[in-house]
Amino acid sequence: MKKLESSLLNMTLVLTLVAVVMGGILAFVNHLTEGPIQEQKEKTLADGIKTVMTCDDLVVADPVEVKQNVDGKELTYIIYNVKDAQGSNLGAAVESTTMGFGGDLKVLVGFNPEGQILGYTLLEHAETPGLGAKADQWFQKGQKGDIIGKDPKEPLTVSKDGGQVDAITASTITSRAFLKAVNQAYNAYKVTPAVDGESGATEKIEN
After folding, report:
1. How far is the C-alpha of 188 from the C-alpha of 121, rounded, in Å?
2. Residue 9 region, left (φ>0) first, then alpha (ψ -120 to 50), else beta?
3. Mean pLDDT across the chain, nearest whole number?
4. In this model, does residue 119 exceed pLDDT 90?
5. Whole-number Cα distances in Å, 14 to 19, 25, 26, 28, 193
6. 169, 147, 148: which is closest to 156 by C-alpha?
7. Torsion of CA 91, 97, 100, 105, to 10 degrees
8. Is the pTM higher than 0.85?
9. Is 125:107 a contact under the CB 8 Å cutoff?
10. How many Å apart are CA 105 and CA 96, to the nearest integer?
11. pLDDT band, very low/low/confident/very high, at 33 (cuts 50, 70, 90)
12. Residues 44-80, buried b or exposed e (16+ Cβ, 10 A)?
């Protein structure tokens, strides 16, 4: 009986030791990769801002957070007011997140000072490859669901819901989620004053 107890004790000690060692290794690896992952996210965002604002030489103000109540939930939108190299206001890039078919759908949308859509890019999504994932191109200029140049003063909706935007084939849920993110980004942008004068514009993005 003592031998059995000893074996169980040894197994427990070994498993505990293995768990501690593996935990330490994972923490170390996470520490090593945390910096590069953050740098990649920042680069993706910077490239995204240039893409959606359709300009390469930009000065981007410190981000502004806007909280709005949507469907009973408080959502946060991040606004990046943007100027060109000469200091002229170009509008803003807005981060907006909604729930898509497969998970969170995070969209970055560029608006000019009048509120028209300059461009967009998907920052994150978990949509089905070949279907909902087509959102990264479907709504671009010249494509079937083209929203570039539109003013979401009247919310953009898919044609199935009586709107003016063609939904992605077989992905109406993703299309609705995408347009909801764009509409909410517009609403957040319109309540955010543009940065002017000697403002908080601190980051210059160039080629």
Report:
1. 17
2. alpha
3. 84
4. yes
5. 9, 16, 18, 21, 61
6. 147
7. 80
8. no
9. no
10. 8
11. low
12. ebbebbbbbbebeebbbbebbebeeeeeeeeeebbbb
Among the listed ranges 31-35, 55-59, 132-136, 202-206, which one has the minimum average pLDDT value? 202-206
Angle at the Cα of 117 from the Cα atoms of 113 and 118, rounded to 5 degrees: 85
Judged against a pLDDT cut of 90, whether residue 93 lies above it is answered with: yes
- Euclidean distance between the first and the last CA atom of the chain, given in angstroms as a whole number: 74
Which amino acid, one-letter code, is at 34?
E
Burial of 152 (0-12, 13-18, 19+ CB in 10 A): buried
**Amino acid type, 118:** L
User: Which range, 20-29, 76-85, 122-131, has the best average confidence (pLDDT)?
Assistant: 76-85
Where does the chain show beta strands of DSSP type E?
58-61, 64-70, 73-84, 89-99, 104-111, 117-124, 201-205
d(CA 50, CA 57): 8
Tokens at 170, concatenated: 């077989």
Please, what sign has the CA dihedral across residues 201, 83, 180, 104?
negative
